[in-house]
Amino acid sequence: MKLTRSSGDSIKITVLLLSLLSLFFISFMVGRYPIAPNMVLEILTAKVMHVAPYWPTNIEIIMFKIRLPRIISAILVGAALSTAGAAYQGMFKNPMVSPSILGVTAGASFGAALAILLAWSTLGIQFSAYAFGLLAVMLTYGIATWVGKRGDAVLMMILAGIIIGTLFSSFVSLTKFVADPENTLPAITYWLLGSLASTNADAVYFAAIPIIGGIVVLTLLRWNLNVISFGDEEARALGVNTIKLRFLVILSATLITSAAVSISGIIGMVGLVVPHLSRMLIGPNYKVLLPVSTIMGAVFLLLVDDFARILFSVEVPLGILTSLIGAPFFIYLLYKTRKGWA
Amino acid sequence: MQLKLENVQCGYGNKKIIEAISFTVESGEFLCLLGPNGVGKTTLFKTILRLLKLQSGRILIDGENIAKWTQQEFAKKVGYVPQAHASSFAFRVLDVVAMGRAAHLGIWGSPSKMDLEIAEEAIDTLSIGYLKNSIYTEISGGERQLVLIARALAQKPEFLIMDEPTSNLDYGNQIRVMDYIATMIKKSGLGVIMTTHSPNHALQYGSKVAAISRNGQFYIGEPRDVITASYLKETYHVQIEILQSVLQDGTQATICVPLAKQDFWSKITKE
């Protein structure tokens, strides 16, 4: 029984990894300028082995300068949001929690809006978004630890997160209010919609470090997320250092979410829906759930971004598309799992 | 092994709820803690489990003050069985029991094959092997309580602290769970402290009874010496008669039976 179960799990994980790999190749082909599958393969092989190029150089530019950073950022952002979402859902013992619960998204949005208002460079906007995302969560964490000394630490955390999130959302509105409606306001609005269309390679590689680092830490901690999902006191009675665990989880989740938001803007629903989908596929045990959420998030966002690129002649912002797909899907999940969180 | 409380005072923040409590529990002993609602049983438990700060006094395990121990070290010696509850997530029973290994694994760890074997052993001790692959959120309250006991056993502690393990259970499950606990103590030699609202459970299963009365008075001793008609009357304001009886199988039993009377209501309204 146990054997078949775990081998079933490995088949599912293998299938997920294979779909990620094939989607990776397919993503080079699709877009405004379609590239034939054999050409994608040959050009990729040429990177490793020496093959005399017979293709026009602009195809290589499209593949490596435009599509590759975008593919990598879709993978990173998708993996980041769903890993953080899955970790938070366990830690807050609530399956309705998304990575933005502690205000990171609102903070990052304000950081970006402010930087756009001040006409900073792309990297400047990214850095500002990242820094304000971290700042917002630091404020939430600080308030929660300060107020919640003798209360329910987790509840305090959520309440403080709501307050800080609302505060930073008002700051975003304020920034929009004072922005020049001719060019700055549309830029802010477009950034907030969430898109991978304008990702540049440097930005992606800069964000990759905290995202990968955070995912590694969460992956190492993942089994203890099972224990803490039974509540703080019970986890402590079971011998878990919950203060340290919570700190590490929040730190990693914030580093990765903030980095993800800084390259993509706000991409909703991924951090909520993908962990659910993963739970349906593989069950709630974080030992397998967390890695599955990571891979599934990457697959999901890469797929949706491909659709964003090919669906209409004008590109639909990715954040709109994920919400359009995510919302009905989430209602379906609620309907399917209303008896319990399968 | 010996768990010893010396002049323990506890409460929330600066508020004092229980003071100057001292008792010891040895391996193989079954101490039932009795007391009305709000008298501080849970506070005392949380303090022993170090979820609340000890206001004064000492808690010793084998003569060693545990104040400086880490939560992990402590959890290797003392396990905790909470009241049966639902989980937010539909874990498999075996996975829930394996969580008892947390103290031995640390923050970066996860159960190895050996840990899963220990979990299965704990499941077998309670004879709930048939539940192993069931979903924790889908089993009954009584079964969940047994799963939580198994989880505490997987922790491999020397002492167990149980918070009203029978409180949410139906009559049959109450008896079943109490029998399981009594058998488990005999099998494993654990020292157990359990709160209960049922004097009959304490009389029938306890090897020692500690009772806190409404005014904070603390009694400890043989079940029959502590649970007296006068204690029950003073504590719960009800008339109780204590009966001695020889059961069909020849065992001697002490049971208490309430005498519901009209003046009981008048007394309640007067307060």
Automatic annotation (TrEMBL), chain A:
<keyword id="KW-1133">Transmembrane helix</keyword>
<dbReference type="InterPro" id="IPR000522">
    <property type="entry name" value="ABC_transptr_permease_BtuC"/>
</dbReference>
<keyword id="KW-0472">Membrane</keyword>
<keyword id="KW-0812">Transmembrane</keyword>
<feature type="transmembrane region" description="Helical">
    <location>
        <begin position="127"/>
        <end position="147"/>
    </location>
</feature>
<feature type="transmembrane region" description="Helical">
    <location>
        <begin position="203"/>
        <end position="225"/>
    </location>
</feature>
<comment type="similarity">
    <text>Belongs to the binding-protein-dependent transport system permease family. FecCD subfamily.</text>
</comment>
<dbReference type="Pfam" id="PF01032">
    <property type="entry name" value="FecCD"/>
</dbReference>
<dbReference type="GO" id="GO:0005886">
    <property type="term" value="C:plasma membrane"/>
</dbReference>
<keyword id="KW-1003">Cell membrane</keyword>
<feature type="transmembrane region" description="Helical">
    <location>
        <begin position="153"/>
        <end position="174"/>
    </location>
</feature>
<dbReference type="GO" id="GO:0033214">
    <property type="term" value="P:siderophore-iron import into cell"/>
</dbReference>
<feature type="transmembrane region" description="Helical">
    <location>
        <begin position="68"/>
        <end position="88"/>
    </location>
</feature>
<dbReference type="GO" id="GO:0022857">
    <property type="term" value="F:transmembrane transporter activity"/>
</dbReference>
<dbReference type="InterPro" id="IPR037294">
    <property type="entry name" value="ABC_BtuC-like"/>
</dbReference>
<feature type="transmembrane region" description="Helical">
    <location>
        <begin position="100"/>
        <end position="120"/>
    </location>
</feature>
<protein>
    <submittedName>
        <fullName>Iron complex transport system permease protein</fullName>
    </submittedName>
</protein>
<feature type="transmembrane region" description="Helical">
    <location>
        <begin position="316"/>
        <end position="335"/>
    </location>
</feature>
<feature type="transmembrane region" description="Helical">
    <location>
        <begin position="245"/>
        <end position="274"/>
    </location>
</feature>
<keyword id="KW-0813">Transport</keyword>
<feature type="transmembrane region" description="Helical">
    <location>
        <begin position="12"/>
        <end position="33"/>
    </location>
</feature>
<feature type="transmembrane region" description="Helical">
    <location>
        <begin position="286"/>
        <end position="304"/>
    </location>
</feature>
Automatic annotation (TrEMBL), chain B:
<dbReference type="InterPro" id="IPR017871">
    <property type="entry name" value="ABC_transporter-like_CS"/>
</dbReference>
<dbReference type="GO" id="GO:0016887">
    <property type="term" value="F:ATP hydrolysis activity"/>
</dbReference>
<keyword id="KW-0813">Transport</keyword>
<dbReference type="Pfam" id="PF00005">
    <property type="entry name" value="ABC_tran"/>
</dbReference>
<dbReference type="InterPro" id="IPR027417">
    <property type="entry name" value="P-loop_NTPase"/>
</dbReference>
<feature type="domain" description="ABC transporter">
    <location>
        <begin position="3"/>
        <end position="239"/>
    </location>
</feature>
<protein>
    <submittedName>
        <fullName>Iron complex transport system ATP-binding protein</fullName>
    </submittedName>
</protein>
<dbReference type="InterPro" id="IPR003593">
    <property type="entry name" value="AAA+_ATPase"/>
</dbReference>
<dbReference type="InterPro" id="IPR003439">
    <property type="entry name" value="ABC_transporter-like_ATP-bd"/>
</dbReference>
<keyword id="KW-0067">ATP-binding</keyword>
<keyword id="KW-0547">Nucleotide-binding</keyword>
<dbReference type="InterPro" id="IPR050153">
    <property type="entry name" value="Metal_Ion_Import_ABC"/>
</dbReference>
<dbReference type="GO" id="GO:0005524">
    <property type="term" value="F:ATP binding"/>
</dbReference>
